[in-house]
Every structure is written in structure tokens, then in C-alpha cells.
């Protein structure tokens, strides 16, 4: 084996050990591990198998090659390599950490697309029209249940399509949902959503464990996206601006506009970090002023003095 092949093999071995640590000790998600593996292998190839032994100069040159990439991509790659070299130092593979030379960019968190109350009303108007069609259209009842749960409970697409048939009960205003990292949480289920599910159940295929069965499994995320896009078009909205995740955003934003507590919203959405929930605080400034004028304790004092 040549020296170059030996170096490449060492890179591969250390990358595999790092990913194994991330999976077992930190519980990194599958998608995170896949992204780290891709970034580390690309960096190793760019440095011709000298990733483990790279100098600060070599890493600086690597970072220069990222100049054309999106800010978020650079932030991810830098974060990945910093964690990798910290692991090497901790394991005693390296005595120094050269990753301090890498750019320390925070990924820019863009504001989510938000549907207005009027646009939500347009969507439900189309759903209601379809529910009144004769003879009854089973897919209309399924779509009504899907949208009511997306907008009424803030479920993620994967959480929604993989709901067990027993997850939603007519007499229970909540559901236990398994979200990211296999973590379970309690989510509210509105009266409207429970009624929509009850209306759908008689039409679903019997014998399946899924609330939304399809073939031998459950409805796919892709099919859900297609259904929502088609619904948006039928409602006269731009399909590019509407998706299951956008309905989840609308759920969060409209609750905050109504005065919901941020911590409660964090629990309902299943966010491990409240900083993630805080992206929904981009509510209308006029509404914030109204909240202060209506609920601030000094408002009553000022009123009594006038």
C-alpha cells in the first residue's frame, strides 16, 4: 500500500470512528450523520487523504475553496470539521486542533413563509366545497383530516403521515406523537381536527395500523406534498408558497399572534431549543403594540389617572 493510500485509509478509519461516536454518545440523527460523512469525505479527498494530519495552512486553503458556497453550507462544513478535530484531540490522535483557522459563521436562519388568515380561509373553503360533493369523495375527507391536523396541531409531515390509527380519539383533545430523535410529545388536537378524523375513518382501508394508509404502508411525505400543492393551486394560491411545513409555520405564527406563550408553543412543536421556536416571533409589530397596550399592568394605572 502506498503512503497516499495509507493516509486515505487512516482518514476513512477516523471518520468512521467519529461518526460512530456521534451516533452512540450524542445520538445524532441519521440525516446529520449522512451530512457529516459527506463533508468529511469531501474534505479528505480535497486534501488527498491528509485530513487527519492537516495543518492550519491546508485547512485555510480548503476554506478558501468554499468561497462560492452558500453561507449555510460553509457554516455546516466548518462546524463538522471543528467537531471532528476536537474528537481527534480528545482521542489523542492529534496533539493540536488546527480548526481554529476555519470560518465561524452562524447559519443564517431565514424567516419561514407564512400564510395569512385570509389565505388559510381560502384553503378551507376549497376543502369544504369538496366535502359537499355527491357522491362523497373519500380523498376529500382524507385531505380535510390531513390539513386540519397540520394547521390545527402543528405536526411535521413525517409525524402526520405516520400516525397510528389509534393516535386520534374522538374523546381525547390531545395525541402522543413520536417526533425527531424518537422523542414523544403531547400535541393538542382541536375539535375541528377530531371531527375531520372521525369523518375520514369510515373511508380509510380497514386492517391497516396507519391512520392514513397507502399500499402496504402509510401515505408518503411526497404524496402529502403533492396533495397540499394541488390544494393550494385550487385555492388560487401560489403552490410554491404552500407546503405541509408552511401550514405548520402558520399554526405557530397564528397562535403567537393570538397571545400564545412561547414556551408552550415550543412544547407543542417539539423543539428541543427555544431558539428554534423564536423564529416565529416575527409577528406583526402592530399586533405587538396592541398586546402591550391591552395587557401591560401600567395601562390600568394610566387610565385611572386620566
Commentary on this structure:
The chain is built from 14 helices and four strands. The chain is mostly helical and 306 residues long. It folds into two domains: 3-101, Tyrosine recombinase, N-terminal domain (DNA polymerase, domain 1); 117-291, Intergrase catalytic core (hpI Integrase, Chain A). The strands form two sheets. A two-stranded antiparallel sheet has the order 1-2. It has a two-stranded antiparallel ribbon with strand order 3-4. The protein is elongated. The model has no long low-confidence stretch (mean pLDDT 83).
Characteristic terms for this protein:
single chain; 306 residues; mainly alpha; DNA polymerase, domain 1; hpI Integrase, Chain A; 2 domains; two-stranded antiparallel sheet; two-stranded antiparallel ribbon; elongated
The amount of beta strand, in percent, is under 5%
For this structure, the CATH topology of the largest domain is hpI Integrase, Chain A
**Structural Rg:** 25 Å
Low-pLDDT regions: none
Distance between the termini: 89 Å
Strand count, sense and closure of the main sheet? 2 strands, antiparallel
Give the tally of structural domains. Answer: 2
Strand count: 4
- Highest CATH level, the class of the largest domain: Mainly Alpha
Helices, by number, come to 14
Structural class: mainly alpha
The outline comes out as elongated
| String of helices and strands | HHHHHHHEEHEEHHHHHH
Arrangement of strands in the largest sheet: 1-2
Which homologous superfamily in CATH is the superfamily of the largest domain?
Answer: Intergrase catalytic core
Judging by the overall fold, what is the CATH architecture of the largest domain?
A: Orthogonal Bundle
What is the averaged pLDDT score?
A: 83
Assembly classification: single chain
Helix content: 55-70%
Amino acid at each position: 500500500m502506498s503512503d497516499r493510500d495509507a493516509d486515505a485509509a487512516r482518514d476513512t478509519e477516523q471518520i468512521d470512528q467519529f461518526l460512530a461516536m456521534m451516533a452512540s454518545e450524542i445520538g445524532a440523527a441519521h440525516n446529520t450523520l449522512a451530512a457529516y460523512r459527506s463533508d468529511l469525505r469531501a474534505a479528505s479527498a480535497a486534501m488527498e487523504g491528509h485530513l487527519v494530519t492537516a495543518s492550519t495552512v491546508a485547512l485555510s486553503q480548503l476554506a478558501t475553496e468554499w468561497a462560492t458556497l452558500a453561507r449555510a453550507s460553509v457554516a455546516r462544513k466548518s462546524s463538522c470539521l471543528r467537531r471532528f478535530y476536537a474528537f481527534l484531540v480528545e482521542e489523542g490522535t492529534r496533539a493540536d486542533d488546527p480548526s481554529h483557522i476555519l470560518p465561524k459563521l452562524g447559519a443564517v436562519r431565514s424567516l419561514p413563509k407564512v400564510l395569512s388568515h385570509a389565505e388559510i380561509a381560502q384553503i378551507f373553503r376549497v376543502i369544504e366545497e369538496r366535502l359537499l360533493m355527491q357522491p362523497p369523495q373519500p380523498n376529500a375527507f382524507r385531505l380535510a383530516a390531513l390539513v386540519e391536523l397540520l394547521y390545527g396541531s402543528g405536526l411535521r409531515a413525517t409525524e402526520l403521515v405516520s400516525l397510528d390509527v389509534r393516535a386520534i380519539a374522538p374523546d381525547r383533545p390531545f395525541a402522543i406523537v413520536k417526533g425527531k430523535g424518537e422523542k414523544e410529545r403531547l400535541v393538542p388536537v382541536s375539535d375541528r381536527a377530531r371531527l375531520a378524523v372521525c369523518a375520514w375513518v369510515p373511508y380509510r382501508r380497514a386492517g391497516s395500523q396507519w391512520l392514513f394508509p397507502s399500499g402496504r404502508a402509510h401515505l408518503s411525505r411526497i404524496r402529502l406534498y403533492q396533495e397540499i400543492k394541488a390544494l393550494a393551486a385550487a385555492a388560487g394560491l401560489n403552490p410554491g408558497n404552500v407546503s405541509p411545513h408552511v401550514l405548520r409555520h402558520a399554526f405557530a405564527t397564528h397562535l403567537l399572534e393570538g397571545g400564545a406563550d412561547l414556551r408552550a408553543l415550543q412544547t407543542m412543536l417539539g423543539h428541543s431549543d427555544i431558539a428554534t421556536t423564536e423564529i416565529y416571533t416575527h409577528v406583526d409589530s402592530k399586533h405587538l403594540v396592541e398586546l402591550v397596550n391591552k395587557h401591560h399592568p401600567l395601562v390600568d394605572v394610566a387610565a385611572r389617572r386620566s
